[in-house]
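hey so u asked for the seq, here:
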Amino acid sequence: MSSGNSVVGSCTVVIPTYNEENNVVNMAKAIRELYPEFRVMFMDDNSTDRSKQLIDELGDPLTRMVVRKPEERGLAASVFQGILECNTDYFMTVDCDFQHPLSTLKGMYEKMEAGADLVIGTRDDRTAMGFKRWAGSWCFTIFANAFLFWHGKPRSKDNMSGLIAGRTSVFVPVIKDNWNNLEMQGWKVLLDLLRWGPKDLKIDEEHYIFAKREIGESHISGKVVVSTFHQCGAFGRFCAKVYAKIKGLDYPYDQ
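ran it, structure tokens below
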């Protein structure tokens, strides 16, 4: 990760959160212990628990929590804003529930240093997700890759992954130029980065085993399915509407 005590590239780990007081301190301490040079930035969607207080009490100048505006809530919106604000050479995104092994960040960092524009954490074994989530992830990967192929954009074996690293100088302009086209309410940041990013992205992968959530409850719901379909063009929006109708969910994009 570094040569001697010097750091070649600076990195910020962007972590979207909502009511994760049982995880935020442990996550911050774990990252800072493993990677003392990394910055940690929690992007919080107005948690109603003590998350902000607990991070402030750490008194770590390289760890902070950004509380976002209530009207701009959304996991993807949190990540995109975090990328814009990180001000480091690289960004990484991880979940706050320890399902992404932090040991993986070392290999991702090294691949960024070697010249990659984007490093995707690729899950070799997704059984810890449970059968329904595993099947859904597999189906969405096929569906999304077909959409990306149709538009001549790069694809991944796991474009549903939430564990990614990117070159800030490449993706800040992408986010700024396509802000109104990005899916802010969805969970699949990577899909939008691939969709709106350059066609000649230098992409690498870091393989890992997906772990079970240690503490707290998952925030995934049927709305995630709707928003993910919605990202995939006209046919995807059609599928999103059909799924929403079957499940009795609102389709907010008609508003």
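The first strand starts at residue 11 and ends at 17. The chain has two domains: 11-217, 220-250.
lmk if thats what u needed
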